[in-house]
Amino acid sequence: MTPIGQRIENAQTRINGLRDQLNAHLETHDGNDDATTTVTDTLTSQLETEEKSLATLKRAEASLARAAAGTSLSVIDTQTVETRGATTVGVHDTTLSPRGRTFAVPAAKIRPADYIFKAVATSIKHYGDQKRPVLDVLKDCYGDGEVGETVRKVMSLMITKAAAIPADTTTSHWATDLVQTVIGDFIQSLLPYSVYPAISAKGSSFTYGRNGVISLPARTLATAVGGAFIAQGAAIPVKQGAFNSITLTPKKMGVITTMTREITEHSIPAIEAIIRQAMLEDTGVAIDTVLLDATAADTTRPAGLKSGITKVTASATATIVGFVADIKALTAALITATAGNIRAPAWIMNPGDVLAASLLQTTVGETPFREELSQGTLLGYPIVQSTTGLNDMMGIIDCADFITATGDTPNFSVSDQAVLHMEDTNPAALSGVGTPNTVVAPIRSLWQTDSIAIRMIMDINWAKRRTGVFQWTDTMAWN
After folding, report:
1. Which residues fall within 8 angstroms of residue 184, CB to CB, at 6 or more apart?
2. What residues contact 93, with CB distance under 8 A and at least 6 apart?
C-alpha cells in the first residue's frame, strides 16, 4: 500500500499536470465549438476531482499526525514564539515544501527533545531519497522557517557522518545552549522507559562542558562533627570530619538501532513517531541494563547500583505479610546504611510487581496498598518503574546521594553502508585472529538488506555519594 505522504505528492503531481494541460488547451483553442468545450469541461472536472481528493488526503494525514504525536496538529500561521536557553522552545510557523505542499506541524510548543527526532528523521529521509542534498530534504520536511532553522542548528552540532550540515558561526552560542537544553529534555523523555532520568532528577546532575573530570566531596560515616553542650568557660570540642572525593570521568555510552528503507516512505509525522519510540526504548534499555546490575566500575562503564551491596533476604511468605516484611527489611537496611539521614527516597520496581502488590489481600479480603500504589507511591515514597533489569527484584534508593554527569552534545550518525554484529548483549568485532580465526554471528549488511542504522554516542557517568544508599532484594514470594 502506498504511504499517504507519497499519495499526496502523487496527487499534487497529477494536479500540476492537469493544470498544464488545461492552460495549453485554452492557449491553443480559442473557439467555442463543441469539441473544444467538451475538452475544457473534461479537464476542469478532472482537476476539481483531484483537488478534492488532495484536500481529503491532507485532512487524513493531519488526523494520523495527531494520533502519532499525541497532540493537536494543524496547519499554522507565521507567528513565532521563542524562548532561548529555557526548557521549552515554542514555534508557530507555516511550512511549505518546494512542491507547494503544506505540512501539518504542532501548533503547540515543541518540546526541545522533539528536535532530536526531527533531526534524525531528516537524516533518515536523506538516505531514503538516495542521498539527496540534506539541506533540500530539511527544507522539504520542515521548511525554511523557524522550525527548519532550529532543526538545522541541532543537526550541525549533533548529527555526524554523511548527513553534514553547515555550522552556524553567527549564532553558535545560542545553538550550543539549545542543544544542551535538547539533550536535557531527551534524558527526561526516557521517563516511560528508564529508571535513570527519574532518580537522576531527584539527585545531583552535572555536565562535563570543557572539563574532562568532575570531582565531588563525599562524607564518610567514620566520624561525627555534631555540636555538643558545654559548660560556661569550658573548652569547645574539636571534631574532625572524614571526607573523600568522588571522581566522575566521561564514560561513552552507545546504542545502534536499525530499520528498513521502507520506513522512509512514511510521512514526516509518522516517521518521527517511529524514530522516537525506537530511540527512547533502545536508549532506556541500554542505560538501565548497566545501572541496575552488580558490576563494579571500570575504565569503560560506571558501577551498577547493586555493586558492592549485599542483597536483603526476601521473606518466604507468599502473602501480604511477606510483602510488608520485605518493605520493612529494605527500609531498615537503608536507614542503617545512611545513619537515618534519608533525604529523597524512591522505590525501584517492575510494573508487574507493583500490580501484584496492589492486589495483595488481607485475611478479610481488603487490599490496603491498592489505592496508594495506584497513585505511584509506597509508604509515601515515589515509585520508579522499569521493565529492564527488574525481573522479580525491587529496591529502594536515596536519590539525594545519586550523582550523575553527562556530556553536552550527544552524536547521532546515520548509515546505509555499515556491516553490524546484530547482538544486543555482547557485541564484538566482526572477526578476530586466533586458533582458529573467529567470525561473529549474526552479521547484517545494511547495503545488502537495504536498511538504515542510527547510532547514538553520549558521554554519561554516575556514582553513589555514600555506600549503601541503594538496598535491594529479589525472588520475592508475594509476587
Report:
1. 87, 112
2. 76, 78, 80, 105, 143, 145, 146, 147
Angle, CA 376 vertex, CA 385 and CA 67 arms, to 5°: 70
- In angstroms, the CA 147 to CA 115 distance is 9
pLDDT at 106: 44
Distance in angstroms between the alpha carbons of the first and the last residue of the chain: 45
Rounded to whole angstroms, the Cα distance separating 276 from 270 reads 10
C-alpha cell, 433:
585472529
Q: Which helix or strand (DSSP H or E) is residue 253 part of?
A: strand 251-260
Q: In 10 A of CB 449, how many CB atoms?
A: 12
Q: What angle do CA 419, 425, 426 make, to 5 degrees?
A: 65
pLDDT digits (tens, 9 = 90+) for 222-270: 566 777 888 988 998 887 766 667 778 888 888 888 888 887 777 777 7
Angle, to 10 degrees, between the axis of helix 146-158 and the axis of helix 114-128? Answer: 80
CA nearest to 15, candidates 52, 41, 42, 40: 52
pLDDT band at 371 (very low <50, low <70, confident <90, very high): very high
Cα–Cα distance, 271 to 140 (Å, whole number): 14
Question: How, if at all, do strands 73-74 and 159-160 pair?
Answer: unpaired
CA distance to 64, 172, 343, per residue, from 11 (Å): 18, 41, 61
pLDDT band at 180 (very low <50, low <70, confident <90, very high): low
37-72 burial string, b = 16+ CB within 10 Å, else e?
eeeeeebeebbeebbeebeebbeebbebbbebbeee
Range list of H helices, 29-104: 34-69
Q: Is the pLDDT at 328 greater than 80, yes or no?
A: yes
Q: Which residues, including other chains, have CB under 8 Å from residue 223's CB and lie 6 or more apart? A: 239, 240, 241, 242
Contact 191, 382 (CB under 8 A): no
d(C-alpha 314, C-alpha 474), whole Å:
6
38-47, 102-111, 147-156, range with the lowest pLDDT: 102-111
Q: How far is CA 297 from CA 222, 248, 307, 389, in A?
A: 23, 11, 8, 18
The pTM is what? Answer: 0.64
Measured CA to CA, the distance from residue 351 to residue 333 in angstroms comes to: 23
For residue 221, what is the DSSP state?
S
* Cα 190 to Cα 213: distance, rounded to the nearest angstrom: 25
Question: Is the separation of the CB atoms in 460 and 287 below 8 Å?
Answer: yes
